[in-house]
Amino acid sequence: MGAPIADGVRAGRVSLAHLPTPLEPADRLGAALGLAPGALWVKRDDCTGLAGGGNKARKLEYLCAEALAQGCDTLVTGGGRQSNHVRMTAAAANRLGLACTVVLASDVATRPTGNVVLDHLLGAELVWGGDLDYYGTEAAIEGVGERLRSEGRRPYLMPVGGASVTGALAYVAGAKELEAQLRDAAGREGADAAVVVVADGSGGTHAGLAAGLGDHGRVLGVDVGTRPDLTEQVPAKAAEVASAAGLRPPVGACVIDRERFGAGYGVPTDECREALDLAARLEGLVLDPVYTGKAMAGLVAAVREGRLDGRAPVVFLHTGGMPALFASRYASWITQRP
Prior knowledge:
CATH class of the largest domain: Alpha Beta
Number of domains: 2
CATH architecture of the largest domain: 3-Layer(aba) Sandwich
Largest sheet: 6 strands, mixed
Number of helices: 13
Helix content: 40-55%
Number of strands: 10
Distance between the termini: 44 Å
């Protein structure tokens, strides 16, 4: 989908996100997990500003630049009913004067909640695709593109999550931003050894981080149940992204925790609920039940099992997603105190 990588690099980026995002210590949460002060940090990519914030604003800076360079007039993408990428793509389109059509892998929401309320507010054309899996959604995005072209439009197609090489390039820059902040906060040695924990949906953020940091072992991805072939796609994409950025491929083996998504994408788990409570009640940090809650559950498990021991700084990448908390499916789950 989209243009050849070289075109994406030439197109550069447009300004959509509030950058750099803050890097904050999480010492109270760290202490509860048995970590020393200064061992646990949160990179606040929920604070990027665009339509409520989230990590997709970084990717959209590159993707939208490519769309404009190609003379496109409509952004097309897709995702689950509570997709943060869909919400933020609609907002980016409005900022740039473009149209936006999105595929939602769900039946029609008779009572919109959470991100879907914002999708309506932002005015995107919503195409309800029914119960689609990951690659079914990708095919539906292609189908929408064909329909728009037949109507004389010039669509720019983004994969689920914006997980093209062009989109993932944003997290090469994001990795360099993080390392600079860590050098100030934890010293050069800490910056060079830090491990980043991130939710793995479509895998593009993970791939970009690995390419930017140069070492797969410095990124722990936590599978949230979106994409069935993450273990193959993330390292392959990381190598492509590194090449596009003029870097060597990341060394080491890709690390993905595939034990935290429970019964499937978006399905609540007890581990996720514990992670939401820990973050909120110890740090005032609001996570979501689809992505960041499960990623934090992966971080908690890795610390408790000794896979992350705090000798190197641990950075939790907060990718946003708060609107999902207000979806009816999760609101009642949250209000039932454990």
